[in-house]
């Protein structure tokens, strides 16, 4: 029994460490209380909070201009036009369709996004679409 508990601790420590190194910009931990989003909050508002807060997506994605990554507007319109699935993409389940040549840079975020709940991922998607032109 003791062994199992020790194993669990070691695994846990390792899992945390891995996430730390993988998630670019994770240092910006937000004031959002994790796991308890306000019930009456619109998904796109929660998405904006995550985008600018703990997700730190805003470091590379601005609303209307390309910085490191494509603008939110560009992502939204390409996903709309091509019928893409943003949730699947940020879960690392779908291929890039906006700028595959820069995919390696975006990939560094999957450690962080894969740890998010479906609700949070959908909120991010809603926020991105709310900026479609
Ligand atoms: C380190 C910079 C960086 C950060 C931080 C970042 N991205 Fe990106 N993102 C990129 C780059 C570069 C691209 C273009 C490559 C691509 O299209 O895959 C991209 C592309 C995307 C795309 C389009 C993917 C496609 O189909 O081509 C989505 C959606 C996206 N990012 C969402 C997010 C979300 C949500 C976050 C926050 C959790 C985030 N990004 C954080 C750099 C970043």
UniProtKB/TrEMBL annotation:
Residues 42-132 form the Cytochrome c domain. Keywords: Electron transport, Heme, Iron, Metal-binding, Transport. The keyword Ribonucleoprotein does not apply. The keyword Lipid metabolism does not apply. This is C-type cytochrome. It comes from Flavobacterium frigidarium.
């Amino acid at each position: 029994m003791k062994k199992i508990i020790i194993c669990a601790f070691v695994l846990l420590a390792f899992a945390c460490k891995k996430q730390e190194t993988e998630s670019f910009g994770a240092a910006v931990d937000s004031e959002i209380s994790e796991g308890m989003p306000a019930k009456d909050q619109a998904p796109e508002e929660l998405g904006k909070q995550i985008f600018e807060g703990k997700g730190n997506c805003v470091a590379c994605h601005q609303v209307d201009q390309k910085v490191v990554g494509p603008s939110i507007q560009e992502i939204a319109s390409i996903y709309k036009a091509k019928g893409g699935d943003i949730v699947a993409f940020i879960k690392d389940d779908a291929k890039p369709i906006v700028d595959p040549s820069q995919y390696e840079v975006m990939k560094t975020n999957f450690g962080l996004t894969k740890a998010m709940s479906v609700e949070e991922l959908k909120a991010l998607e809603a926020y991105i679409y709310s900026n479609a032109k």
